[in-house]
Amino acid sequence: MDATATDIRQAGKAALRQALLASRADTLAAFAAYESALPPGLQVPCTPELNPPLWELGHVGWFQDWFVARNSQRHLGCNAQPLAPRTPARRADADALYDSGQVPHDSRWALPLPDARAIRADLAEGLATSLELLDEADDDDRGLYFHRLALFHEDMHFEAALYMAQTLGLDLPQLQTPRPALPPRRQELHVERAIARIGWAGTGFAFDNELLSTSIDLQPFNIDSRVISWNDYIPFISAGGYADARWWQGPAAAWRAAQSTPPQHPRHLRPEGRRGWLQRRGSRWEPLDLQAPACHLTAHEAQAWCAWAGRRLPTEAEWEHAALQHPQDFYWGAVWEWTASPFEPYPGFKPHPYQDYSAPWFGHRRVLRGGSFATQERVRQPRYRNFYPPERSDIFAGFRSCVP
Question: pLDDT for 165-178, tens place per residue?
């Protein structure tokens, strides 16, 4: 499942050009679906989980311009200075509107954003310039670094558009695609003690938090061959797991206590009758597929289930090592998978020019691994580290468990 991601990280100009065009087509298709689903003005509530769709669209184009077209040191790749001189933006106020590191989240609802037609025109001009510069760039890791960064950034925002739509209850066509089926049996994979090498050590593009590759002494453990399904998770709810304080310890107990209404089940789930369950998909409530992966779970809910089941979450090193050691039996990619690991730098960490990507979040977020049904295939890579606050349940996240 990682071949496509590895290929694009090492891809030359021709493949990268096609990927950039495909990513932009997906961005515009998702935005068009928002335009069809929302009232004129595309207003959405101001909450920590959301961004105004017009701002999201403009930010994607701004990011590509900032790191590619306007970057005087783009030829230096990851050795470029973060604040290297930039040429003027095509829209004079673009930096004040779209720089996520400088524009506070809640202020984005009050910004004088251009309309959708103008933003689309900006994106078209920006992409055309990026592709021209791609043709002129050196066909090596340094010369292609910022084009690859812009590609992955846009792919990530495409997935964000889908989980924002789920949060808003919008029926985007991209949310209605068939979800991947899990293998019917959740088996135990045994992993022997090993000095595991984790992190990116190959050629091609790498995010700064994947470097430098480091060795970890892993003790033997057993890990699930796939993520937890609803069939695995529902018995925890039925047994009163959400009301039993034994399973909610430390930060999980604090999260549970902080809810205005004590949670009784996961987000987007509700009981139907005596035994049945419904799950919201867009605006519609549908019968829950018990064989589907448990999804929209916080890390706290994942840990509570593990405590109830006498298991635990794997560390990110255990997850990565198991995925690489059992490529045929370790099924991943249906949902993002919470791990037990806080998001921290590997030894020797050095920030790349996109300094807001990793360093501000060290120590404040939890690592997820794998990918979801909404993740672009080219993003999925077993060494890729995703990271979110453990209380987030809007993302397409579940988990697998392990035991010593």
Answer: 999 999 999 888 87
